[in-house]
Amino acid sequence: MYNLTPILPEMALSLAGLALLLVAVAPSARRAGVAEGVALAGLIAALLLLPLAQGPTAGRTGEVLGGMVAVDGFGGFFRAVLLLGALVVVLTGARYVRARGIAAGEFYALLLFATAGADFMAIAADLLAFYVGLETLSLASYALAGFLVGERWSLEASLKYFLNGATASALLLFGLSLAFGLVGTTSLAGMAAGLASAPWGGAAGALPAVALVFILAGLAFKASVAPFHLWTPDVYQGAPTPVTSFLSIVSKGAALAAIVRVVAVGLAPLHVEWQPVLAVLAAFTMTAGNVAALWQKDVKRLLAYSSVAQAGYILAGIAVGTSLGLEAVLFYVLAYLFMNLGAFGVVMALSGEGEGETLEDLAGLARRAPVLAGLLALFAFSLLGIPWTGGFVGKLLIFEAALEAGWAWLAVFIAVNTGISAYYYFLLIRQMYLRSAPRAEAVRAGGMLGAGLALAALGVLALGILPQTVIDWSGLAAFAPLP
Amino acid sequence: MVSYAYVVPLLPLFAFGLQSLFGRALGRATAWVGIACLAASTAVSLAVLAEVLRGAEAAVSWPWLSLGGATFSMGVRVGPLEAAMIAMVTFVSLMVEVYSVGYMAGDAKFNRFFAIVNLFVGAMLVVVLADNFLLLFAGWEIMGLASYLLIGHWYHDLANARAATKSFLVTRLGDIGLLIGIFVCYQAAGTLDFAVIDAGAASWAPGVATLAALLIFAGAVGKSAQVPLHVWLPDAMAGPTPVSALIHAATMVAAGVFLVARTYPVFEASGTALAVVAVVGGVTAFLAATVGTVQADIKKMLAYSTISQLGYMMLGLGVFGYAAALFHLLSHAFFKALLFLGSGSVIHAARGEQDMHRMGGLFRKLPLTGLTFIVGGLALAGIPPFAGYFSKDEVLLTAWENERWLFWLGAATAGITGFYIARGIYLTFFGRPRDAELYTHAHESPPVMAVPLVVLAVFAAFFGWLGSASLGRLVQAFLALPGEAEPEAAWYAAASTIALAAAGVVAGGLLYGAARPELRAHLVRVLRPVYVLFREKWYFDHLALGATGLGLAASAFVGWFDRTVVDGLVNAVAWFTGVLGQASRRLAVGDAQAYMLTMAGAVLVGLAALLGLGVSRP
User: Fold this and answer.
1) Quick one: which H or E segment has residue B77?
2) CB-side exposure of B119: number of CA atoms within 13 Å?
3) Which of A56, A6, A61 is nearest to A483 (CA)?
4) Is residue B310 a contact partner of residue B329, using CB atoms and an 8 Å limit?
5) If DSSP codes are grouped into helix, strand and coil, which group holds residue B465?
């Protein structure tokens, strides 16, 4: 009998998900309210169980469940980020779900299952656990993207996501099987050890590189890394906004964690190959995302491209391959969690009122809803990297890591991209502050939505003003020494 | 007191917080909250200055962020440069805010205006006091944001919002350079602290110092509106006039000059970079002054004048005149703020009219404004004994010693300056009223606007004395770098500058005051090519337009590529699938296949890169 303590949070999520399926079939007038309550309870329970699951020493590394998952600081950190992300998605998205008449029971059940899958990607110590986590997340996500039944764009988003996702999964699986064939084990640690002593040269010498390319392709799709990102704007635009928000942080976060686990750890001996590949992908991703974002008229598409660019910055931190780089990545992911969820949260506050889809809808928001406008400005500043926000400190650390490791050209790429991105982030500011409002009625954001936005704003500011306090408190610095 | 200098930026930022949180409850009192905080801030600044004058210095620093091997701290340092700057910035800001109570009365966004002005002042003070690049950059960015919001203050006119965007984007271009320059410094020095960078810059490889200095200079060129990034400043005049006085004349635009002074050791380590600074500054001074001669809009004329004067400062820095350039920065802040506030008083009286050709004879109606404006104008023209004479003279004498042709360029600029400001004064205040209705309704501004004018006029008239040889060149001695030599008093150089400036003033006065209009028309005909060149601003806006056009063409190409090639591909795939099965044609998922093709292509490229370039492992 295995000790199941390390996966208590995921078990809580799954139980809550099953309960939600019961809620879905129960005849109740207040079904949506009950479903929200159960989903929140499941997520909060998972967050509360997390310290117990991580065990007494946060920095400890050890593999449990027959070597399937690793209980280490890195996994604990990412689990906290993913759970917190899902929590904010539920808080900010609840009003949207009600307003659009989405079947709440099934919706939240799938959301929780997807989160559990994402968690497993972050703590996987074995290719099997990783792949099962990935598929759990993916299948639930395909369904979630199509939840606006009857809306053509939503269905199309779902189908596109599924068709492309299945292809990416196939690529990934092919790469994984090649890697397995080379080393004869599915354990990530065993793979690293096996590859370190693999024979190089000759025809067989090329195989690890082939495996690497296919594995990276599959993961790059999930993390919206260019040129595997083309689905992102379509799906982000078509999917229900809470799902977009979920995809942009939980799904993408899990994929980035998996890139660290599978590529940076499992394929560690191949770092001579994957470091430049990741660096080029990072540079390409941030540029493709930012340049495309310049032309967007739709807020969700704009934020989709923005999130593509953000993934590029994070990937740069992984590419430099130092412990400072990884610490920077962790910090940036935490900041990204708050700023991106916050931005989507404001969009949801508007789209709940039947608007907020296009940039025009934001015109004059500062007068109609000064608090919401101020919050969106704060999140945009953070995404852009204006000082005293979490995004600034995160970018600073990634710069620092890149320069320290001798990747100066990558740092220059980030700087130039930051300059480009200023244009479209300021487009948001301009719409809100330097335009007259076409209509007068105020927009309200109270209750759960307000709580979610407040949490996100607090996170952005705390990370920006008192980064050291956050780092010390979360013990972030202790997570980095992976291998 | 000097170790409490960090209070100076905190007070206006505190006011900003109060104003944005409680603006509605405070109503009109919002302005006075800001003014009270600024007054306190000014008092602290002056106390700091008094102590620094007696030789005190201070550096306070707190650890802020430490992760892995990286440690960043936040701190302020106060020396002569900082003390003089904070005193000037707080004082001028205070004057401008008091003036704004009158100027902005009746504005629908009165509260927001004062809140953002205080945000700006706080950010500017952070820039001045920062002891490291990180904090400086933080203030720098927020300053730009405040400037953006204030230029677009009257956004119901779409042109103003556009001007805000233009100014933001153009300065941003320079900021990218600055950011990369900061990296280079970090790489070279291993830290962002100015103290370490300053101490070590001399021992950097010359190439590194040149690269760092030129990139930092790019940021300064953007912020201080130097050629070729100067195009945003005239457009920035779309903002309310007090903003033009404070941000776009006295303080923020001088931040670029300050930045070069702040990192001067890096520039000194590279002769090339200093030469570039000098040439850019000299050329800017000359070009902008010539354009100033043909402006009809009183604020646009002053904007070009600001660009030109900032050029003088850069020129001074470039020819080793560190103290001279900063002296000119300070005296320019006083007289240019005065000129802008004076122009605001005129515009206020003329109910928003800014075209000088429709004014005339206003001296009788606005005697106080007229008098103070003339004082400011004489200071700008460099007529002794007004402030601008001493500081400009100092800059030009340094140029005389180090780079003779730049001296002559600067001296010629002095003449043109005298001409355009005399023209401006004459068109506005003298001659026959050209618009009877405007003239009839004109009235002197209320005391709340008049008092700042008088105070600033006193400074514009007498501040220069502090730097005169007869008083032992107090300002320069205070600001000078250790070992900086004072320029030789070459009387013939000084005399030729004064003569040129005076000639310019007289020519302007005669041409517009005494000569008949036919003579002016005749001159314009004779000098047509030159006139057109100036009127078209040396075609720099066309250059910018051209660059934009190039960008648009590129984007059009991308659009065409997208439509033709990508969509074509998509359509081809869609057609193919359509042939295979009618079902898939019902959904527009054609692009899904195109996305997959891209993925496959990327995988192939990845394989080719890793295998083709050779996995050369031992």
Assistant:
1) strand B70-78
2) 23
3) A61
4) no
5) helix
Task: Judge whether A325 and A310 are in contact, CB under 8 Å.
Answer: no
Alpha carbons A422 and A14: distance in angstroms, whole number: 41
Quick one: B361 exposed, middle or buried, by C-beta within 10 A (0-12, 13-18, 19+)? middle
Q: Which pLDDT value is given to residue A166?
A: 93
Q: Touching check for A271 and chain B: CB below 8 Å?
A: no
Q: Is the pLDDT of residue B384 over 60?
A: yes
- State how far residue B231 is from chain A, nearest Cα, in angstroms: 18
What confidence tens digit (pLDDT) does each residue in B483-508 have? 777 777 777 878 888 888 888 888 88
Partner B contacted by A231 (CB < 8 A): yes
Instruction: Note whether B336 and B249 are within 8 A (CB).
Output: yes
Measured in degrees and rounded to the nearest 5, phi and psi for residue A320 equal -70, -20
Measure CA B559 to chain center. Answer: 36
Using a CB–CB cutoff of 8 Å, tell me whether B145 touches chain A: yes
What's the gap in Å between the CA of A199 and the closest CA on chain B? 10
- B591 touching A (Cβ < 8 Å): yes
**Polymer length in residues for chain A:** 483
Tokens 């074509």 identify what position?
B568
Beta bridge partners of B70: B67
Taking CB atoms and an 8 Å limit, are A412 and B587 in contact across chains?
no
> Is residue B280 predicted with pLDDT exceeding 90?
yes
Tokens of B123: 């950010």
What is the number of residues in chain B? 618
CA distance A478 to A462: 20
What is the distance of C-alpha B250 from the center of its chain? 8
What's the CA gap between B308 and B419, in Å, rounded?
14
pLDDT at A400 over 80: yes
Beta bridge partners of B72: B65
Q: How far apart are the first and last CA of chain B?
A: 66
CB B502 within 8 A of CB B421: no
Report, as an integer, the average pLDDT of A397-407: 89
Cis before B228 (ω within 30): yes
Distance CA B558, CA B212 (A): 34
**Cα A205–chain centre separation:** 34
Residues 6+ apart with CB under 8 A from B334: B88, B92, B250, B379, B387, B456, B459, B460, B463
**B70 in helix, strand or coil?**
strand
Express each pLDDT in B167-212 by its tens digit: 888 888 888 899 899 989 988 888 889 999 989 888 888 789 999 9
Cα dihedral across residues A292, A296, A301, A304: positive or negative: positive
Amino acid at A24: A
The answer to whether the Cβ–Cβ distance between B592 and A160 falls below 8 Å is yes
Out of B64, B149, B589, closest to residue A433 by CB? B149
Q: How far apart are CA A452 and CA B288, in angstroms?
A: 52
Contact A120, A130 (CB under 8 A): yes
Q: Do B68 and A231 touch (CB under 8 A)?
A: no
**What tens digit of pLDDT does each residue of B412-470 get?**
999 999 999 999 999 899 888 888 888 888 888 888 899 999 999 999 999 988 888 77
Given CB atoms, is B610 within the 8 Å cutoff of chain A? yes
Distances (CA, A) of A413 to A286, A288, A306, A377: 8, 12, 16, 25
Helices (H), B263-297: 264-268, 271-292
Strand partners, B492: none
Q: Are B212 and B85 contacting, i.e. CB atoms less than 8 angstroms apart?
A: no
- Whether the CB of B594 is below 8 Å from some CB of chain A: the reply is yes
Q: Take residue B437 and report the two structure tokens written for it.
A: 């209705």
The residues facing A358 across adjacent strands are: A298
Closest-approach residue (CA) in chain B for A392:
B138
Chain B touched by A223 (CB under 8 Å): no
What is the full DSSP assignment across B476-492?
Answer: HHHHPPTTPPPPP--HH
